[in-house]
Amino acid sequence: MTEMPQITLSDGSKMPTYGQGTWHMGESRGSRADEVASLRLGIDLGITLIDTAEMYGSGVAEEICAEATQGRRDELFIVSKVLPYNGSQRGAIDACEKSLKRLKTDRIDLYLLHWRGSHPFEETLAAFERLQRDGKIRHHGVSNFDRADMEEWVKTAGGASVASNQVLYNLARRGPEWELIPWCRERNVSIMAYSPIEQGRMLGHAGLAEVAKRRGATPAQVALAWLLRQPGMVVIPKATDQNHLRENLGALDLKLGDDDLADLDRAFPPPKHRTRLGML
Ligand code: NAP
Fold first, then answer.
1. 11 pLDDT band (50/70/90 cuts)?
2. How far is the CA of 44 from the centre of ligand 1 (A)?
3. Structural domain harbouring 104
4. Which of 40, 74, 255, 256 fits a 20 to 30 Å CA distance from 89?
5. Which residue from 173, 195, 203 has its CB within 8 A of the most atoms of ligand 1, so it is best to mutate?
6. pLDDT for the residue 211
7. What total number of domains does the chain contain?
8. For position 53, which CATH number holds?
9. Overall average pLDDT of the 175-201 stretch
10. What pLDDT sits at residue 84?
11. How far apart (Å, rounded) are the C-alpha atoms in residues 264 and 270?
């Protein structure tokens, strides 16, 4: 079993830096058995973080997580998300209760606002604080928040304890390096890099292939190792194909050298100015 690196959150508790994504799970009945099996294999291989959301498969992804994690809840760090339409005080509490039922658990380790909607932050945060006091969520945070959203969130009552911001970040999407990631790092807010291999689209890139060849690794492993070397960074690749799952885990054993990093900077240049945060 692979030893999973962890980061320390502001309250001293630990969060694994490698997890399994679940977007698109639960969308087709025919894939359910494979989805459960891949999540189970991931847990057997030592991946203790699972990222899901009430949105995925309209709730069915959370049910698949429940099936895959039966009897193993205490080993796991479960992340789920509330849709912005449910971001009112009452709405977020109701949505969380429903997620808990589907996940067949009494607590979510990290509960995120999926993206910014029209409900005032005060309302969502009042719900998050209530859920935390009741032991239904251990930590809370946000997703798809750019720096200005973060500034506003932390100024709102309860917002300063934001544990994480889950954003689109990978070698081909380096915009967040300009100011969002440094801002989060300074405040010990972890970054969860979603679509860390750009949903597979970046894997044919010649610059990535060159580094992978030199290191005897695969492009996906290089892309994930590049993220994992950054402090406070969590990756959540999704892989229903068990060969993908095993391959991706190999990233944990890959240490990129200065020459690799320089070549990756040439192939995927860092930002030279502010850009708007992307979203998938
Ligand atoms: P991703 O993890 O970058 O890529 C997943 C896709 O790549 C799947 O089609 C998978 O296929 C394939 N894949 C995985 N490993 C591969 C490999 N080694 N070689 C070739 N193909 C490979 O994209 P993602 O699912 O968009 O992002 C990861 C997770 O982040 C999501 O599942 C979700 O939990 C979260 N997310 C959050 C947000 C948000 O708004 N907060 C948005 C997007 C994603 P198979 O499944 O067939 O193996």
1. confident
2. 20
3. 13-200+224-241
4. 74
5. 195
6. 98
7. 1
8. 3.20.20.100
9. 98
10. 98
11. 10
